[in-house]
Amino acid sequence: MKNSSRSGLLFSSENIKMIMQEEPQPKKFSRLHMIESKASFSLLFLLSPNIRLEANDCDMKLLFKKNQYILHYSARESTAELWTESPETIKYFQIQINYQYIFNLIDPESSRENAEILENMIRNNYIFLHKKTPPYMTVEMHMILNELISYSKKGMMQRLFVEAKIIKLLILIFEQFNEKNTTKEEPGISFIVKKFIDENYHKNIRAEDIGKLTGISQNKIRKEFKHQYHMTVTDYISELRMLKAKKMIIDKDIMIKEIAIECGYEYVQNFTRAFKKKFGVSPEQLRNG
């Protein structure tokens, strides 16, 4: 997550509240109080390490590592206490969602699968991914939180934006829990980076952008990715782009400039240079035979 000075209530509507909490220098053993509304779901993303949470309405006590999260249902209004025994800043992002909003969104009466999803949410089955360990945020989740925190428009546009991003977050959570056959407690860095590139290589991304979005140092990303896949992050991005470009180049109805943009290149010259380096001929030469 990028650092942000925005703190407190970021958004509030009849169905949704977004709260960013960042306590710069918490006193040792001092506790922050987090409120959960009646009949609501709380998405809690822990953005600093070694945060302890104790829920007052049940016997739930958790120690969070940085970038873990939970999706928790509270039938009645309750409070939870968060604190850290280290000098680290306490930083978390909370989204509260009204039960009826989720009910209407999922529509459990429409299918058995939808009914099971809502039941799993109510039973708090989205707290532990496996081995009683809270799940880790994915790269996409980091990106969405950055967008929610930095979004500046107000009114209807903000409401639509927030609701769309929350739906995407829920989809990512459901997908992550459907893939719980993984054996690692935390996905390997090289896997996280590869998944991000596979889904975003067509955008104008750079290797250093991945480090900023994931909070992982660039040196660690480079080292582990090359060890796992025997090529650099930059080369892998370029490889995917060139494979896509080669498939598109045979369609003469698509302009070279359009192909460049579609493959993540802002400037045609950079695309042509990369294409020629990869295939030994320019895009025009390959298209014209």
TrEMBL record:
One of its GO terms (molecular function) is DNA-binding transcription factor activity. SUPFAM superfamilies: Homeodomain-like. It comes from Chryseobacterium oranimense. This is Transcriptional regulator, AraC family. PROSITE patterns: HTH_ARAC_FAMILY_1, HTH_ARAC_FAMILY_2. Residues 191-289 form the HTH araC/xylS-type domain. It holds the Pfam family HTH_18. It comes from the Bacteria. The lineage of its organism: Bacteria, Pseudomonadati, Bacteroidota, Flavobacteriia, Flavobacteriales. InterPro entries: Homeodomain-like_sf, HTH_AraC, HTH_AraC-typ_CS, PchR_regulatory_protein, Tscrpt_reg_AraC-type_HTH. Keywords: DNA-binding, Transcription, Transcription regulation. SMART domains: HTH_ARAC.
